[in-house]
Every structure is written in C-alpha cells, then in structure tokens.
Amino acid sequence: MNLFCGVTVPQPSIPKFWRKWMYNLDPYTRIISGLVVNELHDLPVVCNDAEFSIFQPPAGQTCGQWTRSYINTTGGYIQNPDSTGDCHYCQYAKGDEFFSPLNYSFANRWRDLGILALYVVFNFTVMVAATKLLTKIYAKR
Q1: What three-state secondary structure class fits 76?
Q2: How many CA atoms does the CB half-sphere of 124 hold within 13 Å?
Q3: Contact (Cβ atoms closer than 8 angstroms) between residue 38 and residue 109
Q4: Beta sheet of 53-55, edge-to-edge order
C-alpha cells in the first residue's frame, strides 16, 4: 500500500489503472499528505553549497535577470541574483514547492483527516459486525 500513496512513486508516475482508484483508496495517501503539508507549508528552504545548481548567465545579464521568468514559473531561488557569473540556483524556496508536484495541498489537510477518520470508523464497524456475525455462526456448533 505504501507504493500507491504518491511518495515512493509520485502520482503521475503510477500506472493509470492503479492511479485511478488505488491512489485515492489508499489510507496512506491521506496520512502522508496531511503530515507533509502540515510540516512543509510556508517553510523556508535554505540549500547548502552541494545542493545548488551552478550555471553561467548570458553576457551582460545578471543571474536574477536571466532566471526571473523561470523562477516565477517553477519556483526556487537564486542565491546571488546580482552576480554576472556562477549563478547558484536552489530548486525550492519554500516547502510548498516540494509537495505541489505530489498533488498535495495545504487547503485539503482537514479533508484528508476527515477521510482518514471515516476509513478508521468504517474498518472498526466492519470488524465489530463481522465478529458478531461469526460469533453467532460458530456459537451454534
């Protein structure tokens, strides 16, 4: 079940047959989604030196000028936006940029908790009903 929650294998990479129903049915999807968005929402990301992608901007442009439209589209940040050489790009500026491709949303955290609670109540109800039914059946023996 861990494979279908969207972390080990991101939702878009899950085969279509499984993605259509198993992703939404898997309770781990709700647990992981809620935990990830709760912890990472608006969390500032600071890359260390080994995590930066380093590249050269075109002549006559600063790192900030060259990457402005790209960063506005994909996220992340430039450590040295005024530099004209060795631009240091970090893939994430905030934690939200990490979980967005996983189709997790901070706005859905309470919905996910409700779905998880319903899952637990349903399983408990089925267990109690099955126990009573099987007890009656086997008590007659």
Answers
A1: coil
A2: 6
A3: yes
A4: 53-55, 87-90, 77-78
**What does the alpha-carbon distance between residue 11 and residue 15 come to, in Å, rounded to a whole number?**
9
Alpha helices in the chain (DSSP H): 16-25, 27-40, 63-74, 96-99, 109-139
**How large is the average pLDDT for residues 11-15?**
84
pLDDT band at 6 (very low <50, low <70, confident <90, very high): low
Entry field: residues in the chain: 141
- What is the sign, positive or negative, of the torsion defined by CA atoms of 58, 63, 68, 73? positive
Tens of pLDDT, residues 18-57: 888 888 888 888 898 999 999 999 999 999 999 999 999 9
Amino acid at site 106: F
Q: Could you tell me the two tokens for 4?
A: 């279908």
CA angle 107, 110, 113 (to 5 degrees): 135
Q: End-to-end CA distance of the chain: give it in Å, rounded.
A: 37
Please state, rounded to an integer, the average pLDDT across all residues of the chain. Answer: 91
